[in-house]
Amino acid sequence: MDFNQSHSVKLNDGHFMPVLGFGTYASDDVPKSKVGEATKIAIDVGFRHIDAAYFYQNEEEVGKAIREKIADGTVKREDIFYTTKLWTTFFRPELVQQGLERSLKKLQLDYVDLFIIHVPFAMKPGEELLPKDANGQIILETVDICDIWEAMEKCKDAGLTKSIGVSNFNHKLLELILNKQGLKYKPVCNQVECHPYLNQSKLLEFCKSKDIVLVAYSALGTSRDPNWIDVNIPHLLEDPILKTIAKKHNRSPGQVALRYQLQRGVVVLAKSFSEKRIKENFQVFDFELTQEDMKAIEELNKNLRYIRLEFADGHPYYPFSEEY
Known about the structure:
The record marks 85 as: Lowers pKa of active site Tyr. It comes from Tupaia chinensis (Chinese tree shrew). GO terms for molecular function: oxidoreductase activity. Belongs to the aldo/keto reductase family. The chain is of the alpha/beta class. It has a single domain (14-308), classed as NADP-dependent oxidoreductase domain (TIM Barrel). It is built from 11 helices and 12 strands. The strands form 3 sheets. The protein has an 8-stranded parallel beta barrel with strand order 3-4-5-6-9-10-11-12, surrounded by 5 helices. A two-stranded antiparallel sheet has the order 1-2. Strands 7-8 form a two-stranded antiparallel sheet. The radius of gyration is 19 Å and the shape is globular.
């Protein structure tokens, strides 16, 4: 078993997902070329799981980076686990495959490894990523999530993606799909915000009971993009308890936050565009947190959500009004 297989989790459809992933979301002030460079560094360092999305608007650069690393012999296509996400303006059964094909075209790849529903609520279809009305309000729509899931299943059957999953779902939304008449494939994962201040322990327990992998985004806190985030929220990596545990292990608070997720059976995404940080984020397999460390980190939970998507509050599928 090679390194990547031993650091992977088996999904409920039989495919394997590396437990540590490289995130590619960048705020508008980061040049897109930088994302491509960082992706190449990440692959050189050892990352094999790349998490991306149509919405991030940088899949051309990420795809080019992957293809260059395949061309120079660093990796083969099958070594890379690539995730993209169905953006909410493609939430019509007849648009879902088109949404995926757009990503594939940008990437210049034949398939992705994982295709997930980015958020559970629909927006008005069209070319605008965030369609707004005359008052500047985002135009939301209600489309049956089960119809979208059926179209996701067809993308898997068509060989355009190996696995399908969801993101930003609570347990009730997951149950809508799990209890759907004629369900063909269960979601393999639920990608959600998850870090020591929002440890998602109830959702994690629920997902484990259904053989769905929890994938953590914003695992190191967040990029503090003022478009999405309340910038007055405390910095996770400045937490004194994380710092103390990090010091004890001669590690960084970021490495401790990532290791914490791995030890509780969560697949964790780490995002950075600095070479030093990318290397550091990969060095999480050669130390172990003690039970006391884990308990101390568990106690940092304050159900603090950095990303609230408040514009969709009130939508029937708004995911964050439930406890988990």
